[in-house]
């Protein structure tokens, strides 16, 4: 029973880490879009906008937390087991873009994202 709980905890840790990375992408997209529209006076103005965008810092913070959780995953699981779950991040990021940013989910985009995710699993399993 203890081994099963450890496995469930590990998979939850993997899922949270991957989900935080997807949320980080969403926050960074929102932050950079706002910065680009607020200051369109060249690269210097846009950089200033990025430094003043709270969502950019939220995104970077989420990436940091996700990376720390990923370090815990790597310390407890074989890389060949953990890494295929990164493919879930592609799917979550695509869905976040569609639901929160009204990005189009075309057949090609969905099929391509699923192929990337499946490719991550195949590469990891081939090791």
TrEMBL record:
Record's subcellular location: Cell membrane
Keyword Transmembrane assigned: yes
Keywords, sorted A to Z: Cell membrane, Membrane, Signal, Transmembrane, Transmembrane helix
Membrane-traversing stretches: 54-74, 81-101, 107-124
Predominant location category: membrane
Signal peptide segment: 1-24
Topology relative to the membrane: Multi-pass membrane protein
Domain of life the protein comes from: Bacteria
InterPro entries tied to this protein: EmrE-like (IPR037185), Small_drug/metabolite_transptr (IPR000390)
Record protein name field: Small multi-drug resistant family protein
Lineage per the UniProt record: Bacteria, Pseudomonadati, Pseudomonadota, Alphaproteobacteria, Sphingomonadales
């Amino acid at each position: 029973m203890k081994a099963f709980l450890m496995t469930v905890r590990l998979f939850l840790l993997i899922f949270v880490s991957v989900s935080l990375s997807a949320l980080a992408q969403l926050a960074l997209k929102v932050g950079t879009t706002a910065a680009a529209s607020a200051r369109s006076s060249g690269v210097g103005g846009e950089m200033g906008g990025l430094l003043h965008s709270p969502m950019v810092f939220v995104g970077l913070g989420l990436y940091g937390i996700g990376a720390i959780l990923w370090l815990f995953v790597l310390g407890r699981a074989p890389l060949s087991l953990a890494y295929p779950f990164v493919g879930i991040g592609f799917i979550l990021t695509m869905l976040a873009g569609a639901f929160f940013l009204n990005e189009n989910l075309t057949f090609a985009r969905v099929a391509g994202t699923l192929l990337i995710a499946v490719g991550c699993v195949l590469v990891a399993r081939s090791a």
